[in-house]
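ok here's Similar to mitochondrial carrier protein, seq below lol
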Amino acid sequence: MSASGEPVTLPDSSAARMSPPSTAHEPAITDLCSWSAVAGVLARTAVQPLDTIRARVMVSSKPLSIWETLQRAGTESCARYHRRLGRFGAFVRSLYRGYTISVLVQAPAVATYLTVYEKTKFALAEFEAASRTSPHRRPLIDLSASSPWNHLCSGLAAETVSAVFWTPMEVMKQRAQVATCDADATLRTLARRLWTEEGARALFRGYLLTIGVFGPYAMLYFVTYERLKRWWSRFLTKSESLPSWSILASAAASGAVAAACTTPLDVLKTRLQTTRLAAGERLSLWRMASALVREQGYQALLRGLGPRVLWIVPNTAITMTAFEYFKAQASSRTVSTASLEGVAS
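and the structure came out like this:
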């Protein structure tokens, strides 16, 4: 996104819907990975404190407001950080627990996530176009680039593949975020304790649950996001471009809807991944959910809804706006290069 409001080119515009997709216009996989990695790290840096608040509210044994969570963050830092950084510095450090873990994994995770989404969306659109011209292959559903079915399938594929990165990150990051002391939240301490007490398998605890939470989230998010972008394109302009602020608004609104709808699943995932178990010990998700509802009521499944939405909205807005901006810049450079080559020839 540029300060001058430079428009962002829609990846599946009305012109693209009129003809089958062409591999000549498909972004290179290296470019997709680079753009999405940078966008993901920028977003993570901005929203890490909100994610920390979300995790602490969700694992609390009693309802906590955001203000109460912030007050606790100021008192849970170790004395040595109070002396070295001051009260405010220790407070900020407490909110950024798990940041190192997040950044190390965020780049490959977001790169995989958005690259798989874009590549799957493009491949499904090509399959749809080929099927339309073949009398022997008729798709059961519409998989064109503008179809919600395409966005739904692409979102699920993106989450399933990228969960290989997200799951270990979530396990380590959330344990750092809910630790009662900064000394217990370092990457080295967490890794050593997890390895010796629970084994390497603990890194992937909740992998299927991560897909169960963020699979529906990604499906709902991308369907809503693509619909909103198309609505903006009809409402604002007849060209193939959208202003950057409309991309920002579409990503934020889609993130809010998807985050709110999947909060109960995220509560269970967060509790499962932050529970310490002995090596070989298993924790039934159903048993944990039943105990939570029995002890704290059904409202416990919505605990952290506010912080989760407040975390995801700016995270998705920053990530997608930056990603679309980088993609638009690369597309404009490609078009300019092609034009120059055409003139030269």
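fwiw The longest helix spans residues 305-344. kinda neat tbh
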